[in-house]
Amino acid sequence: MNREYSNDSAYNEEEEAYINPNEKLPISNHEYLNCDAFIQEVFDYKAIRAKYEIEPDALTIIKAIGKGYFSDVHVGMLSMPTQSIAVAVKTSQMKTGAMNAEESEDILRRQRQALKDELSIFAHLQSSTAGGHENVLKLLGAITTVKTSFCILTEYCECGSLDSFLQAKWKNGAFEDELIFDPKDNEKVWKNQRDSNWADSYQSRRDHGLVTTSDLMWFALQIARAMQFLAAMNVIHRDIAVRNVLLKSDFTLKVADFGLSRKLKENDDNSYYCGQKGTALPIRYIAPESLKSGRFSITSEYWSFGVVVWELFTFAEQQPYSVEFDKYENNLQFYDFLAQHLSSGHRLSLPDYVPQQIKSLLSRLWLSDPKRRPSFQICRKIIRQALMESCPNILSNEKASHHASEHSLFRFDDDDVIEEPPKILDYTQVAFSTSAPPSREITQKEKRGLDKALINHMKKLSNGTGKPLAKDI
């Protein structure tokens, strides 16, 4: 993953000890952003080791399957008491490109630190009540006590990165546009509205190697769920892109690659993280305010999610803004072009086959005012509504398959299969009192609050723990 990152590196030994070595990889590539310094939170690695450490002899690395900015990725087999399972293994890079042994060891040391930082984010995400999220890559273990074997083990996604999958589908002409022009009504309609059997055969289309508009929206919905989960856990990804999303054979997505992710302060809606000077960040995905200030927040993640949705519907054929930059006549470096392009109100161009609901959503995600951008919860509502129109069977069937396993990390939101138009969200909680007020009819607003409270209570009972479940996100 992270194929764009620069391979150049240097390290200033005079930097203060508290600064994270992961953040000291400088940039020679003009498409990446330098940020001002900031002290990073210290994690309890001893507690992480106690929970996730595995014996090196239990792991057999089979072959390399990818290369990241900080690491190499392999597929391996993990021996367990009753069986062996395939795992993805992230290790330090085998070839550092160093000129001598001292430089090589310094690079490897910083790569191990990067893996430790990613391990800490994984551990934090899996500390949630639900133990993680179905659309976030699952940590299985780590080897941290042997320096030469330092690695992270995660679940293995057999279909690889989403960008490669989409590019292959586009190249092979395997995209099925479900929006068709109806001359009778003189407008575009969903095939599902003209063919009563269309929604029932979505799995058959997948089996025949096709990807449809509904599949792209299903991908977008899963990524939105994962990003909402990260936001609820006060984590900003900072590198969300289709290249950092993995695919399972059942079309389940896993948001991955947390090397640049950071944890925000708890319970502060105005929290932001300011990256270290020298951090390589993918500026094609970064919100304008973060480009200028180097500060990242949940609202800047909304912008980045919009770019990811754009990637889905363009099948990752081009990097964001590549077409616009190629047409630009002035001799500017990419960063200067992008800052000028966005400040002038220009945005990424969209293909004609993007549904109008998605176009409208993207225009809101790319608003200059961060406070006006829709949250991940609202993104889910909008995408789900469009998917209900195009192929509702995807939602209903996926819900059934995930609920079939009591061990699933997935907490499916029942709203994802509601066929009624979504109601306006009301974040006001109904106040409860033990004293009896004068008799009156409850308002619709209070009724929605009571319904929500009852659903949450039933979920707690069905969980059998008496504790609240992590919100389905």
General description of the model:
Strand 7 (179-182) and strand 8 (187-190) form a beta hairpin. The chain is α+β, with helices and mostly antiparallel strands. The chain has helices at 45-52, 101-125, 162-171, 202-207, 213-232, 288-293, 298-313, 322-327, 334-343, 356-365, 376-390, 392-403, 444-463, and strands at 59-67, 72-79, 84-91, 139-143, 151-155, 175-176, 179-182, 187-190, 211-212, 235-236, 245-247, 253-255, 262-263, 273-274, 295-296. It has a domain at 426-473. The longest helix is centred in the N-terminal third of the chain and has 25 residues, at 101-125.
Largest sheet: 5 strands, antiparallel
Silhouette: globular
Please give the radius of gyration in angstroms: 23 Å
Low-confidence stretches: 1-42, 402-412, 417-443, 453-473
How much beta, percentage-wise?
Answer: 5-15%
GO molecular function: ATP binding; transmembrane receptor protein tyrosine kinase activity
InterPro entries: Kinase-like_dom_sf, Prot_kinase_dom, Protein_kinase_ATP_BS, RTK, Ser-Thr/Tyr_kinase_cat_dom, Tyr_kinase_AS, Tyr_kinase_cat_dom
Main location: membrane
GO biological process, one term: cell surface receptor protein tyrosine kinase signaling pathway
